[in-house]
Amino acid sequence: MSANPASPLHLAVALDGTGWHPASWREKVARPRDLFTAGYWADQVTEAERGLLDFVTLEDGLGLQSSHYGELDGRTDQVRGRLDAVLTAARIAPLTRHIGLVPTAIVTHTEPFHLSKAIATLDYVSSGRAGLRVQISARPHEADHFGRRTFPPISLEELQSPDGQERLTGLFDEAADYIEVVRRLWDSWEDDAEIRDVSTGRFVDRDKLHYIDFEGKHFSVKGPSITPRPPQGQPLVTALAHQTVPYRLVARQADIGYVTPHDADQARAIVSEIRAEQTAAGRSGELLHVFGDLVVFLDDDQGAAEDRRARLDALAGEAYTSDARIFTGTPTQLADVLHELGEAGLSGFRLRPAVAGHDLPAITRGLVPELQRRGAFRTAYEADTLRGLLGLHRPANRYAAAATA
Amino acid sequence: MSKPLKQIHLAAHFPGVNNTTVWSDPKAGSHIEFSSFVHFARTAERAKFDFLFLAEGLRLREQGGKIYDLDVVGRPDTFTILTALAAVTEHLGLTGTINSTFNEPYEVARQFASLDHLSGGRAAWNVVTSWDAFTGENFRRGGFLPQEERYSRAKEFLATANELFDSWHGDEIVADQAAGAFLRDTKAGSFVHHGQHFDIHGQFDVPRSPQGRPVIFQAGDSDEGREFAASSADAIFSRYATLEGGRAFYRDVKQRLAKYGRRHDELLILPAASFVLADTDEEAGELAKDVRRLQVSGATAIKHLEFVWNRDLSSYDPEGPLPDVDPDVSADHISQGRAQARMYRDPIATAREWRELAAAHNWSIRDLVIETGNRQNFIGSPATVAHTINEYVQADASDGFILVPHITPTGLDDFADKVVPLLQERGVFRTDYEGPTLRHNLGLALPDDLRREERVAS
Can you tell me which residues bind FMN (chain A) (predicted)? Predict the structure, then answer.
């Protein structure tokens, strides 16, 4: 399961507002007034592309951001409000050429048919650079925006209880069905379905269009898609995972899982659990990337990074905590950490810039050259598609294979 | 004293999955590659068109239980392609059909508000309704909506979306870095909607967009559809294009506005129209005949006849006479997923009428379908087409047209290069865009509360 030799290590950034630290918007470089313009996002993604990163992810949600998991916090001192991530990615696609675009989509309240054609279309408008990060939502206030389901209030702690775990398992089962539908719809057109046969007047060969006939616990979907198979065949499916239930989703359904180990031993344990699930799911021969997520405060001098973090914490009124490891230091030190975690089995990293306007350029202009000096990162884009950058082949169409079998 | 000249509005409909699209022409390009959309959008913007229009599909059409394969099949996602086009255009409005049945107001409002932000105020929504279980088979909810409830859901859907758009007023984000205040208050985006179809509450998470609300289009010409448009739409996308038919429709819809407290100019009437251009009127007439035969192949003619007969007619010769058998009115409709199939309300009478027409003119099945089917609206030299379009608009048969070329993606090029300059010479079409948003270019007022804020500010 070797990664692409052209790029031994894969690197993505997770973009969210002005950065992951809740006080990031107060930094001079932050541009909080531009957050709802295309120009802001174009600048972020162009910077990431300048650093030859594999892809960017765009965070999303179906409700206002909150410092609490299960309810709104009523705060006015942090960034609130967000544009649709799939559409933001679509707006950026024609302005970039190489970098992958991986928007987040909430699968709990949306339609797999709509999302499948939206991501297929993102793949067309980006010429093969689309991916998808699936996310569930157990948040009661987001369910209230749809009025079709009622989720009782829950805290992040309560989600760890047996009841909470049962609820999460249900939502992840639904997510698994959702991804299955999305993937079947991408394959519901064979690549050569459009024939334009003037002699018979047929635009498509309908024998190469397939009903997906999905029947599940939560929904059923007939198909085929209205959108022909996207350029990559299957755009990338990714998910963030913190424990066994989501690890299983990653192992069964995803091309990349983002995980949050705090040291090399944890990374090894997580990777081994995902690999075991992957084997159990009959996917042991497939390339499945496991990326480590890290929040980064990057400066040329460790003291400067620590001071910056302390200053932001003071502005926020509390120390910043995260599900992911928080790295505070220099690009050289970060390169060491990534090397160590890579040795433990991670094939790439998704870095979360604490302050987008500061830490993103620190990644592209500080970390990337350091990794390149070590021969650990590409010096030019070596492929035209996101799958290509990640060493993933364009998959055969499951229905075409079935038809010829 | 004569009336001042009306200014014409023009839009471009990216050709879709109807048989108006001649995919067999060697000039016909991809209907799915982004480069086709870029060419089409840039041509429309070069010609100073108001907007690009994109239809939507939610299930591939079927006839006789099989996927319909004679027209273009397949299209992209509406929201995604329109937002991507915002990156390659600066002024062109971006209008998309989005169904109110197989979506939820919170998500659609979020997508339109995002499109409006990401395009700098160029978003427009053609609100359509659907109820059929056939399309519903692709969605979580299935075909749950009784036909009689489709407009009630559509109205409540639009009203709810407007509540979400209006839940932010435009002054909530202060982003005062020194003081640490991002929002002015804690209630930004608060909404509560308790209705027959939607029972939702919370805080909308997209701040007010440049247009406040997208421009609203409504298509469909039933009495209910006209009322819906008169009450709630900024523009109506109609299919009347004869001069008299257009004027009657125009009068009817505009006179409905008063009861909703709206002015005559608050709703634009924009019919879809096709055109065939050539150097001379004679050449255009010949070309139009060729195009019609390309649009209606023998196989297409048989399939079209099946809409009325509601039975398999594949054994009939398209160049031969019409069937003697009568339409089957007892079976489920042979065609699924297309609106035209419901056009013939009395198939037996239509069949009789068509047989008589064909006999009188010695028409084959294909001739009959060509002659009774959709015609090109504007045929002629650039001067003739410019004259006719202007005549329709000045006579209040419409406020402009949504043009549907028959070739993708270059079918608009000649119109842009040859007809638009003539309209500009007559002083009836803009030579530059009027303002930054689609509302400015369509001459539509900004939504009420934006207007109020402007009054307060000035």
Answer: 60, 104
If asked whether residues B53 and B34 sit together in one domain, one would say yes
- Are B207 and A81 inside 8 Å of each other by CB? yes
Question: Is there a contact between B104 and A146 if contact means CB atoms under 8 Å apart?
Answer: yes
Q: How far apart are the first and last CA of chain A?
A: 27
Could you say which residues of chain B have pLDDT below 70? 1-2, 241, 339-343, 374, 448-458
CA–CA separation, B22 and B26 (whole Å): 9
Q: Name the residue among B33, B67, B177 with its Cβ closest to that of A209.
A: B67
Q: What pLDDT sits at residue A257?
A: 98
- The backbone torsions φ and ψ at residue A321, rounded to the nearest 5 degrees and listed phi first, read -120, 160
Question: What pLDDT score was predicted for residue B83?
Answer: 98
ipTM score: 0.97
Q: Are residues B162 and B91 in the same domain?
A: yes
| Entry pTM | 0.97
Task: Tell me the pLDDT band of A6, cut-offs 50, 70 and 90.
Answer: very low
How confident is the model at residue A352, as a pLDDT? 98
At A404 the pLDDT is 59
B388: number of CA atoms within 13 Å, CB side?
Answer: 20
Which two tokens mark B76? 């992209």
Q: Which residue range is the domain that position B227 belongs to?
A: 9-281+376-457
The position carrying tokens 């109807």 is: B18
Nearest to A83 among B38, B58, B114 (CB): B114
Find the residue in B nearest to A181 (Cα).
B138
Q: For chain A, what percent of residues have pLDDT higher than 90?
A: 92
**Which of B66, B72, B81 lies at the smallest CB-CB distance from A125?**
B81
At residue B410, φ and ψ (nearest 5 deg) are: -95, 5
**How close, in Å, is residue A70 to chain B by CA atoms?**
13
Output the six-digit token pair for A159: 């989600």
B252 Cβ neighbours under 8 A, 6+ residues apart: B226
Of B341, B372, B403, the domain-final residue: B372
